[in-house]
Amino acid sequence: MSSALGGGLDVTIDASLLGGWSNITLLTYSQGRTFVLKLPATKGPFASHPYAQEYRVMDFLSRDGLCPKPVKIGRLNDEDRTPFMVSEYVEGVVRSSLAEVTGSDLHNLRVALSRLSARRPPGVKSYKKPSDYLSSIANTVKQSTMGAASPSPNLGRLLESFEAVVERVGDLADSSYIWSGKTMHGDLQRSNVIIQPNRIVLIDLGSCCIGEPLLDLAYFFSQDEGPILSIRREVLSSGDELPIIEGLRPLAVISAVGWSLQFLQRLEADLFDGTALAPDAGTRVSRYVEDKMQYLASLR
Question: Are strands 209-211 and 70-75 parallel, antiparallel or unpaired?
Answer without folding.
Answer: unpaired
